[in-house]
Amino acid sequence: MDEGFCATAVRAAHVRGVGDAKLIRMPASNLDDINRAAAPFDRFTSVQRLGPDRRGHASAEHARHQLYVGRDRQTRLNLLVKLASRPGKVYQDDLANEIATLSTINRELADSRYFPVIHDRGHLKDGRIYLVSTFFDELPLAASIATEWMPDRLVAHLRAALEIVKALVELHGLQIFHVDLNPMNILYRVEKSRPIVRIVDFESSFDVARHSSGVFYSPPTTTGYSAPEISQQSPDPRADVFSVGAVLYTMLAGYRWAESGEPRKRVESDRNLDPELRDILLRAVAPSPEERYAAVGDFGTALAAHLERIWPGRTW
Ligand SMILES: Nc1ncnc2c1ncn2[C@@H]1O[C@H](COP(=O)(O)OP(=O)(O)O)[C@@H](O)[C@H]1O
Ligand SMILES: [Mg+2]
């Protein structure tokens, strides 16, 4: 279970208007535990904790990570620092897995706009591992999901899903699967009516090249979004098909359904869904991977055909 996933907290932050501020200035005491004179913090002119609208943690103290945003002295870019909260082995291994996967992505997909770029990595004096990477302006998808159905957003949500699919086609081309796609790990914004999507949090990622040759793999997952089979078998593209199906359904239907944790039953009984779209979603979130689309691109093709049917003649 991804302990950090708390969409309600994100949404609450927005309702209160907190989310309007890009970064939320925290009291100085929140930064007391970092040493600004040492790496990675010494490269920044200013450092702040990531605001609650982006973290999604009800309480920073219980989070698996400490997340900071710093302004890089040389490039003036905002960068994200992700630091394990404790020196425990599991936390360290998960963040090391994220670093290894992002290194491969950065090398193989150097021009991609979908994924963070690593700027630095290392260990604090106390042994905790850290990662410094791109800080994206986009907010988690969770922030744009309502509680209930929003029929007027249907086309926007389908287009967002198609953009997520494009990102995953790139990722799967490297034989890497994300495995923990949920509305907090996908960032989203609409610019000039086009969706902009970023994929973050690669701690649970499965990289065939590394993990098939014996690197230990026991990832954090998110109930209702991570594919059910991953506790028994190595993930393949169909694990992300399940997650992106569950994410799209949450976008369409709102958060209420997510409380049940089992997308298929909710999709089956949802009378708001167009039957064609319901069949597409049911195939994506089928509990058995054999019943799902074999590749994320096949899910995208079906969605694009549906979009063309309900809104013909547009070039997305
Ligand atoms: N590169 C990034 N740019 C902007 N926000 C990010 C970035 N990476 C993570 N975040 C935000 O921080 C939250 C927590 O980071 P994440 O890597 O998902 O850690 P965790 O494993 O604690 O869930 C994300 O849900 C997202 O809102
Ligand atoms: Mg996360």
Structural account:
By secondary structure, this protein is α+β, with helices and mostly antiparallel strands. The protein folds into two domains: 7-134, Phosphorylase Kinase, domain 1; 139-310, Transferase(Phosphotransferase) domain 1 (Transferase(Phosphotransferase), domain 1), CATH 1.10.510. It has helices spanning 7-15, 52-55, 89-108, 154-172, 208-211, 237-253, 263-269, 275-284, 296-310, and strands at residues 44-49, 65-72, 78-84, 118-123, 129-134, 139-140, 176-177, 186-191, 194-199, 206-207. The strands form three sheets. It has a five-stranded antiparallel sheet with strand order 1-2-3-5-4, covered by helices on one side. The model is unreliable at 1-29 (pLDDT under 50). Magnesium ion binds at residues 2, 4, 184-185, 201. The site of magnesium ion has 5 residues, from loops.
Question: Helix count, per DSSP?
Answer: 9
Total DSSP E strands: 10
Q: What would the CATH topology of the largest domain be?
A: Transferase(Phosphotransferase), domain 1
Q: Largest sheet, if any?
A: 5 strands, antiparallel
Helix content: 25-40%
Properties at a glance:
single chain, 316 residues, alpha+beta, Phosphorylase Kinase, domain 1, Transferase(Phosphotransferase), domain 1, 3-stranded antiparallel beta sheet, 10 strands, globular, disordered N terminus, binds adenosine-5'-diphosphate, binds magnesium ion
Quick structural overview:
The chain has about 325 residues and is α+β, with helices and mostly antiparallel strands. It has helices at about 5-15, 50-55, 90-110, 155-170, 210, 235-255, 265-270, 275-285, 295-310; strands at about 45-50, 65-70, 80-85, 120-125, 130-135, 140, 175, 185-190, 195-200, 205.
